[in-house]
């Protein structure tokens, strides 16, 4: 096993990393990955190694995100930021079609699926799982989403094993990380320190092997493999949060009338931040518009959230009118009914909903309170 | 995977979010705010459907709403008959369409009524208000194959005598001697000589064998809750009672998240559900 | 007399009533019929009878000067009237036959006297009237909700 792995594993340096970016660009990929913007690490275009947030890390807690300097110049030494890859796979807004009225006839012009080929660079283990979950949502039903499918099937995924657990991370609890197990074309583990800066690389697909072949590399040394394993193990041991996850389906559905929902509703502002940052939330709504003379109309879809009143509106009113019922819908869907619908939890333990909640509501804490019985 | 292959395949696969164009052939005012629209596909194609399914109808430039199909499944164009209440921007725009105007159609979607399963059983149809519209295709099917079913009872409750949907058809069906039909209204003024009271009160009047009955219930959710209760009290098992749920829908293909009812997507797993499979979801608050 | 007792015993409202009670209450019964349009009683009158309907339909109505509302119709095998059971023994609505209606009228004073004399009989009566009252109260609640109305 070890010998096989050593054979399949190589190491590249920062120049190799640039070569990798170039190789992807040369194959027609638009490379997107983590970069600094407005004091956060977001996902955007990456042309050069310098575009990565070298030497930065983050401090995350309930309702808190702050960038701080690291003592080294690691390129991937931080946890998940506010963006997730769904912004590319399932864009926040997308036109679906246009209709034109011409001499009494209506001509439909469907928006064709984009042929853009993305290389997602720096996908974390929890994010690979989130993408796999959205694959089930958008591509496994009888009627799938052609836009998602096109983007997904064209995408090249470069994963990065996490070298640092964030303050709100709990992927270990959800069995989704911190080590990328599958679903990637390439996976990197960053080794930085003692004057060297290397990336241990493994390919997970033929596509990955093909691109890697174009990059200067050396066979990974045993001590490099050992160091890579140690880094992932250390990350796993330093999770910011924990949440028992084996009993969530029945726990939540048995507690729909738990007083804790009232308690959390007093804090929840129903701002929908958690659903926007969540890498698996998929709700969308549609919007129609037309020009003033009424010859052209169009429909677009955009992200929606179960925290809005509109989400459950049927003529006469909203089914979920109270903040309590909307928070409950989000959490029971994410952790319980998602399993009924898609055979998997909707939570990957990335911690974004905790970090980006303006009042710091913590899903792990809410689950613990439901499990313990009484309200806080 | 080559780029060309992907693009080609996507172009070939129709996007389920893009409507097809139909035109309003005619419309009839059923009630003050209720209209039946008869559409025809612009390409002349038919739209096969199962009783209880729905279409997403687009008023161009305004929006799209789910509307149950109220036509005859055995008739050409039956899938393009919709009965719609003018309650919002989109339904209002659809109700005001003039003959010849374009309408977008996606569908049909969803799981319909158990018309085939009901063969050999007595059938009780319990409808309230506009809930008669999605059940009308069932009635057409039962009547077209009358001998395949046992006793058939149609119990219909409306708000008042002036709000009885499909009144002339109800009168026609009442003249048939092999289905039992009872109509009641919640309130009536002096000149109404029919029944006044809630629709569930009609159940004791109907003749059916509760052990071999399949019941289909459609109406406002609260009416369906009490209707199911009355059917259970009459001895009909929860596994023989079906109802049609209504929730917000934006996509109708299980992708938009709006119509969730516990684990179910009403658009895809419903709108028709077997009562025992819905379980407590029917009575839970704000689910 | 024997015929009346049989009709009382066979009316679904008294199904399963003990033989001795049937005999006892049949002494308070008499046969009545109402032509279409005829009133069984009017709102405000003393509730001195209740009716076991045998055939026909009766509308329970409430009137304003300009119009009359039917709040419920009852028919064969059902009963009309519970106000005779409790003070002030006064009808709260009009009861009008919609078609030829045949019924057994039970004299309230007679029946109340027998119930006072034999509380077991009184309890039997209460057990038969309460479900009807609860059912009608529930129906009234649903009607008040106006579930088929447009709520926006």
Please characterize this protein's 3D structure.
The complex is a heterotrimer of chains A (about 375), B (about 290) and C (about 150). Chain A is α+β, with helices and mostly antiparallel strands and about 375 residues long. Chain A has helices at about 1-10, 15-25, 85-90, 125-140, 145-155, 170-175, 205-210, 220-235, 250-255, 260-265, 275, 325-340, 350-355, 365-370, and strands at about 10-15, 30-35, 40-45, 55-60, 65-70, 95-100, 105-110, 120-125, 155-160, 185-195, 195-205, 220, 285-290, 295-305, 315, 315-320. The longest helix of chain A is centred in the C-terminal third of the chain and has 20 residues, at about 325-340. The radius of gyration of chain A is 22 Å and the shape is globular. With about 290 residues, chain B is an alpha/beta fold. Chain B has two domains: about 5-110, Translation factors (Elongation Factor Tu (Ef-tu), domain 3, Beta Barrel); about 120-280, Nucleotide-binding domain of ferredoxin-NADP reductase (FNR) module (Rossmann fold, 3-Layer(aba) Sandwich). Helices cover about 20% and strands about 30% of the residues of chain B. Chain B contains seven helices and 16 strands. Chain B has helices at about 5-10, 90-95, 135-145, 165-175, 220-235, 265-270, 275-280, and strands at about 20-30, 35-40, 55-60, 65-70, 80-85, 100-110, 120-130, 150-160, 180-185, 190, 195, 215-220, 240-245, 260, 265, 270-275. In chain B, a hairpin with a 3-residue loop joins strand 3 and strand 4. Chain C is built from four helices and eight strands; from the N terminus they run H-H-E-E-E-E-E-E-E-E-H-H. Chain C has helices spanning about 1-10, 20-25, 110-115, 120-145; strands at about 30-35, 40, 50-55, 55-65, 70-75, 80, 95, 100-105. By secondary structure, chain C is an alpha+beta fold. Chain C has a four-stranded antiparallel sheet. Helix content of chain C is about 35%, strand content about 30%. In chain C, helix 1 (about 1-10) packs across helix 2 (about 20-25) and helix 3 packs across helix 4. Chains in contact: A-B, A-C, B-C. The interface between A and B is large, with 61 and 48 residues. Strand 10 (about 190) of chain B pairs antiparallel with strand 5 (about 70-75) of chain C, so a sheet runs across the interface.
């Amino acid at each position: 096993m070890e010998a096989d792995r050593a054979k399949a594993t190589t190491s590249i340096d920062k120049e190799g990393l640039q070569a990798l970016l170039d190789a992807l660009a040369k194959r027609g990929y638009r490379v997107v990955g983590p970069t600094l913007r407005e004091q956060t690490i977001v996902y955007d275009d990456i042309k050069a190694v310098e575009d990565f947030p070298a030497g930065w890390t983050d401090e995350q807690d309930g309702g808190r995100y702050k960038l701080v300097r690291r003592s080294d110049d690691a390129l991937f030494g931080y946890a998940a930021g506010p963006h997730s890859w769904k912004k590319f796979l399932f864009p926040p807004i997308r036109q679906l079609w246009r209709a034109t009225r011409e001499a009494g006839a209506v001509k439909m012009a469907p928006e064709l699926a984009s042929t853009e080929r993305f290389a997602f660079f720096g996908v974390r283990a929890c994010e690979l799982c989130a993408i796999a979950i959205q694959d089930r949502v958008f591509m496994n039903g009888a009627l799938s989403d052609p836009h998602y499918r096109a983007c997904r099937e064209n995408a090249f995924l470069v994963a990065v094993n996490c070298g640092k657990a964030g303050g709100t991370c709990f992927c270990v609890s959800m069995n989704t990380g911190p080590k990328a197990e599958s679903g990637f074309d390439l996976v990197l583990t960053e080794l930085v320190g003692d004057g060297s800066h290397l990336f241990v690389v493994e390919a997970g697909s033929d596509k990955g092997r093909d691109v890697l072949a174009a990059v200067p590399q050396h066979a990974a040394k045993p001590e490099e493999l050992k160091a890579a394993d140690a880094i992932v193990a250390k990350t796993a041991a330093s999770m910011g949060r924990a949440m028992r996850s084996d009993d969530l389906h029945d726990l939540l559905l048995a507690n729909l009338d738990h007083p804790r929902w009232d308690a959390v509703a007093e804090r929840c502002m129903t701002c929908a931040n958690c659903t926007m940052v969540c890498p698996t939330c998929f709700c969308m709504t549609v919007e129609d518009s037309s020009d003033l003379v009424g010859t052209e109309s169009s429909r677009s879809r955009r992200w929606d959230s179960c925290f809005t009143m509109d989400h459950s509106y049927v003529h006469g009113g909203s089914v979920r009118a109270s903040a309590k019922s909307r928070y409950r819908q989000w959490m029971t869907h994410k952790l319980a009914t998602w399993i009924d619908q898609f055979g998997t939890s909707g939570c990957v333990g990335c911690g974004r909903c905790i970090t980006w909640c303006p009042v710091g509501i913590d899903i792990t804490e809410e689950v613990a309170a439901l499990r313990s019985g009484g309200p806080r | 995977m080559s780029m060309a292959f992907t693009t080609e395949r996507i172009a070939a696969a129709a996007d389920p979010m893009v409507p097809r164009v139909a035109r309003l052939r005619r419309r009839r005012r059923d009630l003050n705010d209720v209209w039946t629209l008869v559409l025809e596909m612009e390409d002349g194609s038919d739209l096969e459907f199962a009783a209880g399914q729905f279409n997403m109808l687009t008023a161009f430039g305004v929006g799209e709403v789910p509307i149950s199909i109220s036509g005859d499944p055995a008739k050409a164009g039956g899938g393009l008959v919709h009965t719609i209440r003018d309650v919002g921007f989109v339904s209002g725009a659809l109700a005001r369409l003039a003959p010849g105007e374009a309408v977008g159609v996606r569908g049909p979607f969803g799981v319909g009524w158990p018309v085939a399963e009901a063969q050999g059983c007595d059938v009780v149809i319990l409808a309230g208000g506009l809930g008669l519209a999605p059940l009308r295709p069932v009635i057409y099917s039962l009547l077209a194959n009358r001998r395949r079913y046992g006793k058939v009872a149609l119990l219909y409750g409306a708000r008042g005598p002036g709000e009885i949907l499909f009144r002339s058809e109800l009168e026609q069906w009442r003249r048939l001697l092999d289905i039992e039909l009872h109509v009641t209204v919640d309130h009536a003024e002096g000149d109404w000589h029919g029944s006044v009271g809630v629709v569930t009160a009609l159940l004791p009047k109907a003749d059916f064998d509760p052990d071999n009955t399949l019941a289909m219930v459609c109406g406002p959710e609260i009416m369906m809750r009490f209707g199911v209760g009355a059917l259970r009290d009459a001895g009909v098992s929860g596994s023989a009672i079906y109802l049609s749920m209504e929730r917000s829908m934006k996509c109708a293909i299980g992708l938009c998240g709006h119509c969730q009812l516990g684990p179910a997507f009403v658009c895809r797993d419903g709108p028709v559900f077997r009562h025992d499979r819905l379980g407590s979801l029917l009575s839970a608050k704000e689910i | 007399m024997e015929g009346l007792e049989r009709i009382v015993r066979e009316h679904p409202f008294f199904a399963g009533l003990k033989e001795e009670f049937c005999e006892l209450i049949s002494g308070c019964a008499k046969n009545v019929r109402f032509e279409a349009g005829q009133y069984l009683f009017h709102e405000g009158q003393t509730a001195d009878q209740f009716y076991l309907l045998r055939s026909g339909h009766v509308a329970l109505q409430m009137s304003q000067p300009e119009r009359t509302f039917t709040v419920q119709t009852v028919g064969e095998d059902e009963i009309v009237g519970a106000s005779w059971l409790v003070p002030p023994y006064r009808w709260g609505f009009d009861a009008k036959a919609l078609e030829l209606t045949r019924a057994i009228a039970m004299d309230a004073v007679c029946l109340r006297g027998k119930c006072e004399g034999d509380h077991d009989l009184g309890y039997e009566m209460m057990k038969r009237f309460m479900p009807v009252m609860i059912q009608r109260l529930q129906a009234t609640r649903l009607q008040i909700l106006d579930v088929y109305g447009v709520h926006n």
